[in-house]
């Protein structure tokens, strides 16, 4: 059996997976389960997108290490008062076109108190980050059998 073409095939498959695999920009350091919704739209444009994760802090193995709710932007935890400064840092690294389309995506745990989310929204409003979207999962249809 001639296996001379086997390395070519293996490298072709490897190259394909390298091209289509999406690498995460930020690893969440908080545990969150997004809420469910029925009227959802998928966000297609990723340009000018900033992610805020809200949930309980986890260690490298994914185990919850504390019960208090934490806010993560980028690769670090921030206080509510620091959110404006972090948005300004991100804005300073963006192009003019991306700055105009700046969208903040909040990925909050379904058990997060609305007071925390409102505080985050107030800080975003202070720095003019008014385009906000919320991540959610599609609600399972209860009429299906």
Based on the model shown, name its key terms.
alpha/beta; six-stranded mixed sheet
> What is the strand content?
15-25%
Low-confidence stretches: none
* Average pLDDT level: 84
* Shape, principal axes of CA atoms: globular
Structural class: alpha/beta
Extended strand count? 8
Order of helices and strands: HEEEEEHHEHEE
The termini sit apart by 52 Å
Present the secondary structure layout:
Blueprint: H1 6-20, E1 30-31, E2 36-37, E3 49-57, E4 70-73, E5 76-78, H2 83-93, H3 96-100, E6 103-108, H4 114-126, E7 132-134, E8 137-138
Parallel strand pairs: 2-8, 3-6, 6-7
Antiparallel strand pairs: 1-3, 3-4, 4-5
Summarize the entry for a quick read.
The protein has 145 residues and is of the alpha/beta class. It has helices spanning 6-20, 83-93, 96-100, 114-126, and strands at 30-31, 36-37, 49-57, 70-73, 76-78, 103-108, 132-134, 137-138.
């Amino acid at each position: 059996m001639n296996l001379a073409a086997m390395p070519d095939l293996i490298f072709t498959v490897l190259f394909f997976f390298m091209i289509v695999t999406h690498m995460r920009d930020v690893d969440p350091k908080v545990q969150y389960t997004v809420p469910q919704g029925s009227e959802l739209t998928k966000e297609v444009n990723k340009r000018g997108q900033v992610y805020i994760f809200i949930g309980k802090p986890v260690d490298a193995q994914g185990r919850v290490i504390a019960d208090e709710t934490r806010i993560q932007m980028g690769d670090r935890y921030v206080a509510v008062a620091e959110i404006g400064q972090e948005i300004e840092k991100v804005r300073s690294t963006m192009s003019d076109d991306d700055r105009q389309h700046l969208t903040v995506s909040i990925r909050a745990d379904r058990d997060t108190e609305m007071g925390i989310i409102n505080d985050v929204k107030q800080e975003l409003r202070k720095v003019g980050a008014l385009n906000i979207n919320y991540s959610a999962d599609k609600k399972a249809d209860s009429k299906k059998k």
